[in-house]
């Protein structure tokens, strides 16, 4: 399994890029969102990758964070969601958007992706709701790299993953705090997602307070 690839960005097409690693070119498929944030051709680039193995084809898909990569894997586990639909969802609302949409059961946000109908979007929201807390807590930083194989070009300076902002660490800290208070993972994730959506810049204490207000009994 190829877990991360780093090298020189040789060229980009509509839905994929070619990354040159020591003279070997790797075709990596990326979402519209990742494509828009890539640096200029000829510069170094690094992406987390997931390898899709088919009988007659091998395809690499590239992501800027581990959270995005994990959602890709989980999205493809849902009936009716293939690699193309998964990349469309991630390209439309991003990894953080997927986390919020699934935690909140907001299938309408998922259905905004090209090729994803309402019924499929509802299935995604229902089947993956219990997965949201653990994925939101991942963070997606370099320190959390997996044990997958690394393909990387020699370079004078460390190559960092491009573009996407790191997941807000306050989310995982708030989820942990709410769990310690006895709240169910699904309820905690929904509250954290809603609070984060209202104000993405909340620090951990403020996010916990906002989530607790949402979790408080109504009436």
From TrEMBL:
<feature type="region of interest" description="Domain I">
    <location>
        <begin position="1"/>
        <end position="64"/>
    </location>
</feature>
<dbReference type="InterPro" id="IPR036267">
    <property type="entry name" value="RuvA_C_sf"/>
</dbReference>
<dbReference type="GO" id="GO:0003678">
    <property type="term" value="F:DNA helicase activity"/>
</dbReference>
<dbReference type="Pfam" id="PF14520">
    <property type="entry name" value="HHH_5"/>
</dbReference>
<feature type="domain" description="Holliday junction DNA helicase RuvA C-terminal">
    <location>
        <begin position="170"/>
        <end position="216"/>
    </location>
</feature>
<keyword id="KW-0227">DNA damage</keyword>
<keyword id="KW-0378">Hydrolase</keyword>
<keyword id="KW-0234">DNA repair</keyword>
<comment type="similarity">
    <text>Belongs to the RuvA family.</text>
</comment>
<dbReference type="InterPro" id="IPR012340">
    <property type="entry name" value="NA-bd_OB-fold"/>
</dbReference>
<comment type="subunit">
    <text>Homotetramer. Forms an RuvA(8)-RuvB(12)-Holliday junction (HJ) complex. HJ DNA is sandwiched between 2 RuvA tetramers; dsDNA enters through RuvA and exits via RuvB. An RuvB hexamer assembles on each DNA strand where it exits the tetramer. Each RuvB hexamer is contacted by two RuvA subunits (via domain III) on 2 adjacent RuvB subunits; this complex drives branch migration. In the full resolvosome a probable DNA-RuvA(4)-RuvB(12)-RuvC(2) complex forms which resolves the HJ.</text>
</comment>
<dbReference type="Pfam" id="PF07499">
    <property type="entry name" value="RuvA_C"/>
</dbReference>
<feature type="domain" description="DNA helicase Holliday junction RuvA type">
    <location>
        <begin position="1"/>
        <end position="62"/>
    </location>
</feature>
<keyword id="KW-0238">DNA-binding</keyword>
<dbReference type="InterPro" id="IPR000085">
    <property type="entry name" value="RuvA"/>
</dbReference>
<feature type="region of interest" description="Domain III">
    <location>
        <begin position="167"/>
        <end position="219"/>
    </location>
</feature>
<dbReference type="InterPro" id="IPR010994">
    <property type="entry name" value="RuvA_2-like"/>
</dbReference>
<comment type="function">
    <text>The RuvA-RuvB-RuvC complex processes Holliday junction (HJ) DNA during genetic recombination and DNA repair, while the RuvA-RuvB complex plays an important role in the rescue of blocked DNA replication forks via replication fork reversal (RFR). RuvA specifically binds to HJ cruciform DNA, conferring on it an open structure. The RuvB hexamer acts as an ATP-dependent pump, pulling dsDNA into and through the RuvAB complex. HJ branch migration allows RuvC to scan DNA until it finds its consensus sequence, where it cleaves and resolves the cruciform DNA.</text>
</comment>
<dbReference type="InterPro" id="IPR013849">
    <property type="entry name" value="DNA_helicase_Holl-junc_RuvA_I"/>
</dbReference>
<dbReference type="GO" id="GO:0016787">
    <property type="term" value="F:hydrolase activity"/>
</dbReference>
<keyword id="KW-0963">Cytoplasm</keyword>
<keyword id="KW-0233">DNA recombination</keyword>
<dbReference type="Pfam" id="PF01330">
    <property type="entry name" value="RuvA_N"/>
</dbReference>
<protein>
    <recommendedName>
        <fullName>Holliday junction branch migration complex subunit RuvA</fullName>
    </recommendedName>
</protein>
<dbReference type="InterPro" id="IPR011114">
    <property type="entry name" value="RuvA_C"/>
</dbReference>
